[in-house]
Amino acid sequence: MPLIDGFRRVLVLCAHTDDEFGCAGTVVRLVEAGAEVRYLALSTCEASVPAGLPPDVLAHECRAATAALGIPEANVELGPFEVRYFPRDRQAILERLVQIARDYNPDLVLLPASSDTHQDHATTYQEGFRAFKHATLLGYELPQNLVTFHNSAFVALDERVLAQKLAALAHYASQGFRPYSAEAFVRGLATVRGVQCRAPYAEAFELIRLIIP
Asked: For the domain bounded by 3-209, which CATH number is listed?
């Protein structure tokens, strides 16, 4: 039985809407394996929305993207923290994560890698580790923020799953100017990671903690 079939309660923990760029294919596989998947983006990044767009555009795009990945709308939580100020709000963030740990008790948490240099992602990793240290923790790859990355775990993807990932990420029209949102970049990275694990495509993760029941 593939290891991915063993996870029943999954939390996709993001600092910002669109951080699931790093793990969207894995989310598709988890949903198809029958896991309950919940998604939390701590900020909808209203302060960094491009000029001329409505402040809540990322919230709407995120809901469309997560739906395309197969996550029920009721399992998606957004906000309320201010982008770029997570270090200031770390205690409130921790308290929200601890509450989720008590109420939901995920057995797998996908969260930013420990080496992510963005201050919001770093805080999300640190407080996520504190709140969910009794779960399996995989740190997803966001190359634009990484100097080093310990790609010590891989989830294989095929063309169908990669296409679903790309279709979901395409909902982030407001982020189309960012190089990491380009289809060629996403497909290229998936190809590199696939070569490293002898799969057509893959997503790579930092194995932070593995719990084997």
From this structure: 3.40.50.10320
